[in-house]
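User: Predict structure, ligand adenosine-5'-diphosphate.
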Amino acid sequence: MIRFWRQLRWQIIGAQMLVVIVGVVTLSFAASALLERTVPPDQFIAVQATVIQALALAAVAATIAGLTTSILLVQAILRSLRSLAYSSQRIAAGRYDERVAVPASDELRVVAESFNQMAAALEQIEQHRITMIGNVAHELRTPLAGIEGYLEGLIDGVMPAETDTFLEMKQEVRRLRRLVDDLQTLSRVEAGQITLTFTTFDINEVIRRVIAQIQPQVLDGCLQVICESAEQPLLTRADPDRVAQILLNLLGNAVRYTPEGGCIIIRSAMVDEQVQVKVEDTGIGIAPEHLPYIFERFYRADPSRARTSGGSGIGLTIARHLAWAMGGDISAASAGVGKGSTFTLTLPRG
Ligand code: ADP
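Assistant: Predicted complex:
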């Protein structure tokens, strides 16, 4: 019996019937009180019979109307609920393209629309997952094919077993290691699992440290690095190691994508109550059609060039997630191919 009343259909029908019963009983009491006061005793029986007949007719009509409306209501609600249950089972089974029909009633429409939004978000996540696996496989294939080629060459005697060959192989292994490290960092920043140690520090000092760190590559590329930051401290509140990681990535890219004899300028300033660091280069620039995507995982404006220079295409994705986690942001701008690029990192002031 309790199970029976747990069903929504019986609850709605029961509620409607209760209203009918209470209505009829109240009306009967009211009618009998009225009759006793107003009808003369000789006509009482006849009038009472007529009133009882009218009340019985009203009770039957109210019951039919109550039953019909509650059945229609129950059907509409149950149809939507069944459709939701069916669709969620299909989504659970991996059919992420599943959507439910949006009903006319406001409340059910909100539920159906929320459900469809959830399904769309799940579909997008699944799509990202598939693309990610494809990208990782693709990225792994290149260095692995390189190592395999060297090994086959060594086995067949086509390649000499000399230091140079092993150094080339080491280069490919290093590329693999960098990719694996980057992937691990990416998964952790995207899951928000990076532990950040917030302190107030001088960003100009971190900039100078990063420039010193990148000096060997700068010399290799015959580049000029100009630091236009002020001498006095520019305080920011963030994790200094992560800020250094971001700047190293931006400077590393500037070095990588700037041809010999080019120039890299770093500026820091307080803009709109935020600390801003601009890394500007006179390098190959970024075409407008690539610009919106360069922060996406594995996106490279020029895949062949980036890959030969060891770029995994996820450095900027990591950098932007780190900046977000510290309450900041990174944006990119470029006047076009061959016209250099500017990356701007903003962080909260200290
Ligand atoms: P990668 O490891 O390939 O450099 P990133 O995520 O750091 O990966 O950068 C993504 C892409 O953005 C690069 O492949 C390159 O096409 C473009 N890019 C990044 N920085 C610069 C820059 N300073 N100049 C030109 N292109 C750049």
